[in-house]
Specification:
about 350 residues, mainly beta, Immunoglobulin-like, five-stranded antiparallel sheet, five-stranded mixed sheet, 27 strands
């Protein structure tokens, strides 16, 4: 009997001691960050706890299962009925994909070890466009500054784009400036306000109905950043296209009545003294039925100027006048190409060599 009584007293004493221990309870033991972006950096959550025991609660250690997870916690004793907190911070840098981490809490509570958990999914950051966008355009960067739209039929529209990137740390306003004479080249800026690490596009569309030009065309546009317009090569963009006539809807009768251009393959303009100017003439004949309309004549050399009639009647000849100014040219033999664009559907583009000698 005495032995039973002694055992009972010891058990009651143990219960009394246990009841006087601190007791740690948590509002939550798990937190799901969901999907987070790697480039956004560290994310944090707070695990709040309460001491529901009868003695002060002291957290002796809080340890994470990974160096990517950092806990900070209430260091001072938490009195009975009071609360404390553990802040858990996760660093997603270089850790794309799903994650689940454990944080182990050691204390003087009746249950000396407790665990809380964090989880989520890191969405990988996009690589900065540093390597691709190597051309500096003021505060922006581009891969290329020239856009070639290629061949565009008269009456059609065609568009293309040039990308620009903001590799800096500040946002910028972006716009484009063009000449009024080039209004047939429509432009648009996709990001008028571009943030750091964003990529925008300059979209250009050629409206062939809005211009009388045929053949190669070249338009200059200038990037305007934060309202500062500067006409220089640094901010200059070049947009090219080749406008051709559309003969696809011609009927058999139209083709039978079509004009036919006849020219020589070369023009020997002769000789001229260095620094002087000379004039020459090149004949063009229409051996077809309808008038031969000369859309455009051009030479890719500013020393040569050409002037052509607008049309040549059936069976007649017209003359393309050529002025050659040799200022700045060295003595020697020269060959230049003249391009004649007409409404001859078989040969809409005629190339002629111009030969001359500077003495």
């Amino acid at each position: 009997m005495k032995k039973i009584f002694s055992t009972l007293c010891m058990a009651l004493a143990a219960v009394a001691v246990f009841a006087q221990d601190p007791v740690i309870t948590f509002e939550k033991t798990e937190h799901d960050f969901g999907k987070i972006h790697e480039e956004d950096g560290r994310v944090s959550t707070v695990f709040e706890f309460k001491n529901e025991g009868m003695a002060p609660l002291v957290l002796s250690n809080v340890r994470a299962s990974c160096g990517c997870t950092t806990p900070t916690w209430t260091k001072e004793p938490v009195e009975p009925g009071q609360t404390g907190s553990i802040t858990v911070t996760y660093n997603p840098n270089g850790r794309p994909g799903r994650f689940q981490k454990t944080v182990t809490i050691t204390s003087n509570a009746s249950e000396p070890t407790k665990k809380v958990y964090i989880k989520g999914e890191v969405l990988p950051k996009q690589a900065k466009p540093v390597n691709k966008y190597t051309i500096a355009v003021g505060a922006l960067n581009m891969k290329v500054k020239t856009l070639d739209l290629g061949t565009v039929k008269k009456g059609e529209n065609k568009s293309g784009e040039l990308e620009y990137a903001n590799l800096g740390k500040e946002a910028h306003k972006v716009a484009l400036a063009t000449n009024a004479a080039d209004a047939y080249m429509i432009n648009q800026v996709t990001l008028e306000q571009i943030q750091p690490n964003e990529i925008g596009k300059f979209v250009f569309a050629i409206d062939t109905k809005a211009t009388k030009l045929y053949g190669p065309v070249e338009v200059k546009a200038y990037v305007v950043i934060d309202g500062k317009k500067e006409i220089s090569e640094v901010y200059e963009l070049t947009i090219k296209a080749n406008i051709v006539e559309d003969f696809s809807n011609m009927s058999v009768e139209d083709k039978q009545q079509a004009p036919i251009i006849e020219t020589e393959a070369e023009l020997n303009a002769g000789s001229v003294a260095a620094g002087k100017a000379m004039k020459s003439s090149f004949p063009v004949k229409n051996s077809g039925v309808n008038p031969l309309e000369i859309r455009r004549v051009y030479v890719a050399d500013s020393n040569l100027k050409v002037k052509a009639p607008k049309a040549v009647k059936s069976g007649k000849k017209g003359a393309i006048n050529i002025d050659i100014n040799t200022k700045g040219m060295q003595p020697g033999a020269y060959v230049r190409e003249m391009v004649i664009i007409t409404n001859d559907y078989v040969t809409p583009l005629k190339r002629v060599k111009i030969n001359f000698t500077v003495e």
